[in-house]
Amino acid sequence: NNNAENPSCAGIDGVLESYLQSLRTVQLYGPTNFAPVINQVAGAAAQVTDGSQYHVLLIITDGVISDMLQTKEAIVSASALPMSIIIVGVGPAEFEG
After folding, report:
1. Contacts 24+ apart (CB under 8 A), 67-73
2. 46: domain range?
3. CA-CA to 43 of 20 to 30 Å: which in 31, 50, 79, 82?
């Protein structure tokens, strides 16, 4: 949501609001590195030990992942945490890899 101090969105309405705001303010360019954001959300998810929260990371990208090995490692590391990762590719890039 472009807020480093409080990067969470509340519900689908918060996700949509953040997405619409990002469309107006974010300039898309490469490289496309996912591991850092996955690790950041995984760190927040690891803080929750009582089952009271579940994190959903939605990544919308117009580029092919540049750090594929690190992204795979981050996903595997996060797989036991209370979180899901959704990656949506948009545009003409080749997302087959």
Report:
1. 67/31, 67/32, 67/33, 67/34, 67/35, 68/97, 70/33, 70/35, 71/33, 71/34, 71/35, 71/38, 73/35
2. 28-89
3. 31
What span, in angstroms and rounded, lies between the C-alpha atoms of 48 and 83? 10
77-87 residue pLDDT tens: 999 999 999 99
What CA dihedral angle connects 15, 16, 21 and 26, to 10 degrees? 70
Q: Give which of 60, 61, 64, 59 is closest to 94, Cα–Cα.
A: 64
Give how many domains the chain has, as a whole number.
1
pTM above 0.85, yes or no: no
